[in-house]
Amino acid sequence: MSRSPIAAAVAFEGLALALAFGLAWALGVPLLRLFRFTAPAVAWGAAAAVGILVALLPMARSDWPPFRRVTRVVREFAARFFSDATLLDLALVSAAAGVAEEALFRGAIQVGLEGAVGTGPAIGIAALLFGLAHFVTPTYAIVATAMGVALGLLMAATGDLAAPVVAHALYDFLALYFLVRVEGLDAPPEEAGG
Fold it and tell me: pLDDT tens, 141-170?
């Protein structure tokens, strides 16, 4: 397999992490100090990942057209970019997304806004921006926003950025593993002329 999709995904998340540090600096958020990696935060993050997967499973099995479309789009994306990925590739991409996106949305944005607007509105704003950043379909954006609220509540409850990072990274890894290894998605055929 060509490593270009994996490298591109990790590079994209690297840009998100750079943005997180820049925004955190501008807002006066000590981003690195928010990563405490306490055992309870890591445990809560792992439990949240499993909870999110269980909550989203009915959506993946639903016949409702908006949910079917999300499922189709996610499967096509996973097949196109990750069908031949190794477990290490899946772990690397998942970890990069968890660290970078949570540093940006829950660290820089949510924590950065808490002093000005309060915890609840900061969670909502960060979650809405997270949903918009994941606008693949309108339904996917709504689901991502809801996931952003859950991750924001996890950050607020633990005070440790490790909790939403673990939840996000582990969720991504388990979802990709299921799609690629359990369901065995095949790469789509090359499009004509390209």
Answer: 999 999 999 999 999 999 999 999 999 999
As a whole number of angstroms, the distance between CA 139 and CA 146 comes to 11
Q: What is the DSSP string of the chain?
A: --SHHHHHHHHHHHHHHHHHHHHHHHHT--GGGG----HHHHHHHHHHHHHHHHHHHHHHH--SHHHHHHHHHHHHHHHHHHTT--HHHHHHHHHHHHHHHHIIIIIIIIIHHHHHH-HHHHHHHHHHHHHHHT-SSHHHHHHHHHHHHHHHHHHHHH--THHHHHHHHHHHHHHHHIIIIIS-PPPPPPPTT-
What is the model's pTM? 0.89
> CA 82 to CA 93: how far, in whole Å?
10
Asked if 24 contacts 108 with a C-beta cutoff of 8 angstroms, the reply is: yes
Condensed to tens digits (0 to 9), the pLDDT of residues 89-117 reads 999 999 999 999 999 999 999 999 999 99
Task: Enter the tokens of residue 16.
Answer: 């998100």
φ, ψ dihedrals at 188, nearest 5°? -65, 150
Buried-exposed string 122-156: b where 16+ CB fall within 10 A, e elsewhere? bbbbbbbbbbeebeebebbbebbbbbbbbbbbbbb
28: left (phi over 0), alpha (psi -120 to 50) or beta: left
